[in-house]
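ugh finaly. both done.
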Amino acid sequence: MGAVYQARDLQLNRLMALKVIRPDLAKDPEIVNRFKQELILARQVTHKNVIRIYDLAEFDGLKFITMDFIDGRDLKTFSERTGSSNLGGLRRTSSKFAAAWKQRTLKP
């Protein structure tokens, strides 16, 4: 759907992440609405393992979400270093998380 970039908030002097919608997708109101829903839903969850999302904004025609920046490896790097066989647990965990999210039964 887009790309995530590291950025610095100059007013608060802190690192943050920008999740940018691809320009071709930003023209589709349904995609933009899904992007907004991601923000709305994520703001309803407060947990140490869930990233904090701040805002949906636009600059020079690019729509993006601002969120906490978490320094670490991405999933692609993780899978290359550990081998795809180790991703089974991650897939199971993410499936359970997705099911719980839909039912709003997330518990610490």
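ok and the 2nd:
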Amino acid sequence: MRQPSCRWPQPSCRVTLGFEMKITDLRTKGMDELRNELKELLRAQFSLRMQLSTQQTNKTHEIRKVRRDIARVRTVMQQTKIKVSN
């Protein structure tokens, strides 16, 4: 009996296809660059939420991607703060 195939690619495949920000790229950036990146992502998230609420877009998957990218940036910022304080 065949196993059902997963409709989502493996996480490593999604990263290599360029759908998500790479955490290694974020770790090479400085705090100012990370803050700017976070501001841009928050603006993009707000814009996507407004488009979704006014039914101007059907790209609901973009909201999820932006939310996860925001989490990645915040994680790297927190890790950088911890490294500096130690």
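summary for the 2nd one i guess: Residues 60-85 form the longest helix (26 residues).
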